[in-house]
Fold this sequence. Notes:
By secondary structure, the chain is mainly α. About 70% of the residues lie in helices and about 0% in strands. It is built from 14 helices and no strands.
Amino acid sequence: MRLDFQKSIANSQATLPIMGGVTFVLWFFLPPLRSSVSFSSPDYGLWSHVPSFLQEGYWTLTISAVLAAWAVYLMAELNNANVLLRVNSRMLSSMLALLLCLTVLCHGFQPGVVVMLLSLMSFFPLFSSYQSPMPMPPFTACLLVSVASLVFPKWLWMVPVYWLILGIFRALSLRCFISTLLAVMLPYWLYGGIAFLTSTFSEFMVHWQMVVDFQGFDYGKLELCEVITLLFLILLFVIGTIDFALHQFMDKTRTRIIYNVLIIYGVFIIIWIGVQPQYLRMLLPQLILITSIVFGHFFTLTHTRFSHICCIVLIVMAVAVLTVQYLPDVDAPLLHILTFNP
């Protein structure tokens, strides 16, 4: 017997409101994780100036919930503006809400959530530049990247990725390239001027140093909850990528190119996490953003017996991922767990 629950969920107008309600309940009523990460190091730029009370208690939950809700809304608008799905569905927004809800590590006001929101906003001008080599859309997209780098200096390394995307879109002319350079420098002209006037120019120089300061990391220090969450997101991303590669001929050319550049974006994030896992919690929201689009495409448009079985298994795995984040010793370093050291 053919099951149609997947198609019903994807096409229902009630999916997003229901998912929003579930996300709200879990966001505010799940107990906080014992595991926490400090974002006060120079690696996170101006984030150290964010008042500490905004990163604690219900303040951090409320602010992060507002940012998450804004991101879910922008995802719906991104879908409308670029016709990312061939059917009338809010599945991409629902998938983003679901993945943010399941990843308890992101239930807080942290730089990763801010960068995710700015990245999503940058997709609007970036995608509008398709086969249109006008300087304003690339300027706006790279300006948002530069603003995001104020709270995570190494995010400036995404600018070459944006150049690659503009090249794939056939929108990278000399004027566009110069406009992106001006966009990257503009926030730092303002930041440098303020730093000079307030006698904090040394902090400004440290900020630039952090852009190229890459250090080694002991993979054994990763926590079990981080590893399991990451592997689950990568699994969803791979499933969505493979399915899109097999069925992309059904989409229009512009949609195919947009999904291909999103997959490149996601692969870059995964490689970054693999090379510099100390920024895993910073980069998880970015991976969630891309995965929600790529896997949401699979969930919405693929209705086979295999996809139904796959989705049932993934729903069970999603509940397991949420549960495992609260298991005893889940915040212990992975090396400690694997070696069973007391």
